Structures are given as structure tokens and as C-alpha cells.
From TrEMBL:
Residues 90-343 form the Serine aminopeptidase S33 domain. InterPro entries: AB_hydrolase_fold (IPR029058), Hydrolase_4 (IPR022742), MAG_DAG_Lipase (IPR051044). The keyword Methyltransferase does not apply. PANTHER family: PHOSPHOLIPASE-RELATED. GO terms for molecular function: hydrolase activity. Keywords: Hydrolase. It comes from Bifidobacterium eulemuris. This is Alpha/beta hydrolase. It comes from the Bacteria.
């Protein structure tokens, strides 16, 4: 590693005084219209629906139905001459975040990609961040069809991602729900990305019960017209941070993410509607289809956490095995002492994780296959 990780003892100070100003200096913010990509995937674009932020001061009413993104130009970043930054331009990374997350949460990871010569294009998935909403309650996430997530991400990568890659490699970095979406993109758009990292991907969610039972329950609730209702036992975001539920993570990082969430109402998604659960389980079944796994041509590395309570590990194993059986290049890396968000772990875990990602992206394609 040619650059220094952020000092956890001075984390908030370094993020606020160094990282965030540098990111702001090279960031292009915009709204992506997913209509064409959705039509090409056989989906009817959704009409603008409920949006709890439609009257906000940032003019979000003018972006009905569109998806918010942050794109970071490594050429502009290089002009800042940050210590440890490479002079090489290595292409672009498309970033796909997890359930109830938002693109800006990944500011530290984006910083490291920029230091290593990659532009970064990060999309707020539908129902998340500043993107189009379909629910009055800003804490609740709903989606009508998992294929919409897939079409949106693919369309974003084909346009903004390729533009920022500028003829150089285009890679994918995705986490949790974003990893399940990313896996489906790799199956349906096999020549879109040069490399892909799936970090604790939601190949199958952990629902708190056997997933066959969760599938039956969610299908039943949706059939009864409860698809937009909150899943039992979940609540609105209330601003509470329980560090006791993150015994292995970097508490400095957890506090930073939480403060960012508290400061922005758009970042306070927190619970699932029954339709989201139904679609996540349908996504899982589709991603694990043997023929779909065999269609993957993009070399991929899947990182698995030993203390993951949000997604299931065994389906990740099956996914990698099926990609390999179909002739694809897939590697599984298990990090025993990590929670679900490996990028939130202490530097002792984060450093080797980053090293492996960057080495994988830098390998010639022939060595990854």
C-alpha cells in the first residue's frame, strides 16, 4: 500500500478537514434518468410517486423519477496533489451501495480509489439517498421489481461509468444489496465491467427465519395488499446509535456514518416494506440460477465476513462455485474477524482488504481469468 489509511484516532478530523474538501473539489453531482435503460430491459418506467423530499430546498421536485449520483473525476483530484496519490489514470469504478445506505457513505472508499488512479461513479439506488422515492415515509424502502435495480445500475454504468472510464478499464465495487444487484448485472450484462468486487453481497438476505418461510410470508402479505407496509418488528430511524451491536467495527467510522445520517433526512432510510423483501428473495433465486451464474464473464472477487448477520454466507459459497462451474473466474476471500461492512472495520482489517481489492483491479485480465 503506497498511501496511508485514515488515522482512526483522528478520524473525524481527517475526514472533515482533508477527505471531504478534496472530494468536493472533484465531484460532479447529477440526476440520471433511468427510463431508457428500464425500457430496454422490458420494464415500464415508474411514474413519479410519493416523495417526502419533493419540497426540499435543493429543488428535488425538478428531479421526479430520476436517480441521484455523485461522480468523482480523478483528473481533477490529481490536480490537488494529495500525498500518496498516484499519477496514473487507471479507469473508473462504479459503486453500488447496500440496503438503506447512500453513495456518500462510501466517501472513505472513494478517497482510496481516487488516490489509486480511479475515477468513481456512485449511484443512489431508487428509494435511497436523494434518488426517486415511492413512499411517503422516508424511513421505508419499497421496490416493485428487483429487475428495476439491475436495469438502473447497468444503464448508469453504460453511460456515466463508461464516460468517466474514458477507454480505460471499468470496474464494479458493490456491497450487500448492491452486491446482489451487481451479481445480477454481471449475469445479464457480461461485457459491461472488466473486474468486479462483491463485498458481502446479498446473494441471499438473512431474514431471521428460513428464507422459504420468509418467501411464503412476503408473497402472502403482498397478495393481501400489504406490499407497501412495513415488515414486522422494524421501525423508523430515531437517531440512536448502538455501538454494542458493532463489537468488531471501527467505532470512529460508525460514529462518522451515523452523524452523516442524522444530518441528512434523505439518508435515514431504515426499514423494509414487504414488497422489498419479496423482491430481494426473488433476486436471490434469480442470481443463484445455474445458467445465469454460467453467463458471467467478468472476473470477480467475493469478500465474505465471518460475523455477518445481514446476509447468508452459504449462498455466497454456492454462487462462487456455480460461476466457477460455468467456466467463470470467481474467487472467494473470507475475512473471519469482520462484520458485514468490511469497509467499516479497524485499519488492521481494512488495510489488507483494500490491498486485495486494488491488487485485483490492477492485475492484467489474463491473470484474473
Amino acid at each position: 500500500m503506497q498511501f496511508a489509511l485514515i488515522d482512526e484516532s483522528r478520524y473525524a478530523e481527517e475526514m472533515s478537514q482533508t477527505v471531504m474538501p478534496a472530494l468536493a473539489a472533484c465531484c460532479d453531482e447529477g440526476w440520471f434518468d433511468p427510463s431508457d435503460a428500464e425500457r430496454e430491459a422490458g420494464l415500464t418506467p415508474l411514474a413519479p410517486g410519493a416523495d417526502p423530499f419533493a419540497s426540499s430546498a435543493d429543488g428535488s421536485a425538478a428531479h421526479d423519477g430520476k436517480l441521484h449520483y455523485l461522480c468523482y473525476d480523478v483528473t481533477k483530484f490529481a490536480n490537488l496533489r494529495e500525498p500518496g496519490a498516484t499519477a496514473a489514470f487507471r479507469g473508473a469504478v462504479v459503486l453500488s451501495h447496500g440496503f438503506t445506505e447512500f453513495a456518500e457513505k462510501y466517501s472513505e472508499m472513494i478517497w482510496y480509489f481516487l488516490l489509486n488512479g480511479y475515477s468513481v461513479c456512485a449511484l443512489d439506488h431508487r428509494g435511497h439517498g436523494k434518488s426517486a422515492r415511492d413512499m411517503d415515509n422516508p424511513s421505508l424502502v419499497w421496490i416493485d421489481d428487483w429487475r428495476r435495480y439491475v436495469a438502473d445500475l447497468a444503464g448508469f454504468a453504460q453511460t456515466l461509468g463508461r464516460s468517466y472510464a474514458d477507454g480505460q478499464p471499468l470496474h464494479l465495487y458493490c456491497h450487500s444489496m448492491g452486491g446482489g444487484i451487481g451479481a445480477a448485472v454481471l449475469e445479464r450484462y457480461p461485457d459491461l465491467f472488466d473486474k468486479a468486487v462483491l463485498s458481502c453481497p446479498m446473494i441471499a438476505p438473512a431474514t431471521g427465519m428460513p428464507n422459504w418461510l420468509a418467501r411464503t410470508l412476503s408473497e402472502t402479505m403482498c397478495a393481501l395488499g400489504m406490499g407497501r407496509s412495513r415488515v414486522f418488528g422494524q421501525t423508523d430511524f430515531d437517531g440512536t446509535l448502538d455501538l454494542g451491536s458493532h463489537p468488531y467495527s471501527s467505532h470512529a467510522r460508525e460514529r462518522w456514518y451515523h452523524q452523516m445520517r442524522c444530518a441528512h433526512a434523505e439518508y435515514q432510510t431504515y426499514s423494509a416494506a414487504f414488497e422489498w423483501v419479496r423482491q430481494s428473495l426473488r433476486l436471490s433465486r434469480a442470481v443463484l440460477d445455474r445458467e445465469s451464474c454460467a453467463a458471467i464473464e467478468t472476473p470477480l472477487t467475493l469478500f465474505q465476513a465471518g460475523h455477518d448477520v445481514w446476509v447468508l454466507n452459504e449462498p455466497q459459497n454456492r454462487f462462487v462455485e456455480r460461476v466457477q462451474a460455468g467456466g467463470g473466474s470467481a474467487r472467494l476471500v473470507r475475512i473471519d474477524d469482520s462484520e458485514h461492512e468490511i469497509f467499516s472495520m479497524p485499519n488492521a482489517v481494512l488495510g489488507p482488504y483494500l490491498d486485495q481489492i486494488l491488487e485485483f483491479f490492477a492485475e492484467p485480465i489474463s491473470e484474473s481469468v
